[in-house]
Amino acid sequence: MSMTAAFLKEFDNEASTTRRVLERVPADKLGWKPHPKSMSLGELALHVAASPGVIAGWCTQDETQFTGEKLPEPTSAEQILAAHDKGVQTVKDSLTTVGDEGLKSMWTAKAGGATLMAMPKSALVRAIVLNHWIHHRGQLSVYLRLLDVPVPSIYGPSADENPFAART
């Protein structure tokens, strides 16, 4: 199996799980924050929904310039799910375009002329498209718990859902 195919297989599994989490985000709580320094529920959910597509798009570039733009504030749960679905397709398109050879090339992130990080594009996919995304999805599951929203099974049973339990 190629490196690209392996990443896409893992991504598909994580995208399905992420959509289940995003489907639980209550539309009437998008502005809620667990702490003044935290993102709102809506900002975090939209970040989880959109970031894989945005970051995978960086893979099609050799250098990305960061400008410090603020995250948008979503206005509906439907907007969040649509961003997720669009991002899933963008990841598939971007990684297919880049391919195994492209994943071996370097990517650099810059801001204000300074290099923030440089890594092979394969590391960008692993560390930021996948790991960073999964980290924020975990934060989102904590937000859901704090709001008393049932948390779906992610890698195993949650306190609310156990897909491994015997069905009666």
Structure description:
The chain is mostly helical. It is 54% helix and 10% strand. The chain contains 4 helices and 3 strands. The protein has a 3-stranded mixed sheet. Helix 1 runs parallel beside helix 4 and helix 2 packs antiparallel against helix 4. The radius of gyration is 17 Å and the shape is globular. The mean pLDDT is 95.
Outline of this structure?
By secondary structure, the chain is mainly α. The chain is built from four helices and three strands; from the N terminus they run H-H-E-H-E-E-H. 54% of the residues lie in helices and 10% in strands.
Strands across the major sheet, in which order? 1-2-3
The rounded distance between the terminal residues' Cα atoms is 39 Å
The counted number of beta strands is 3
User: How confident is the prediction overall: mean pLDDT?
Assistant: 95
What is the H/E string?
HHEHEEH
Biggest sheet record: 3 strands, mixed
Strand content: 5-15%
Overall SS class: mainly alpha
Shape from CA axes?
A: globular
What ranges have pLDDT less than 50 throughout 5 or more consecutive residues?
Answer: none
- Total helices: the number is 4
> Any idea what the radius of gyration is?
17 Å
Fraction of helical residues: 40-55%
Topology:
Blueprint: H1 3-22, H2 41-58, E1 63-65, H3 77-103, E2 106-111, E3 114-120, H4 121-146
Parallel strand pairs: 1-2
Antiparallel strand pairs: 2-3
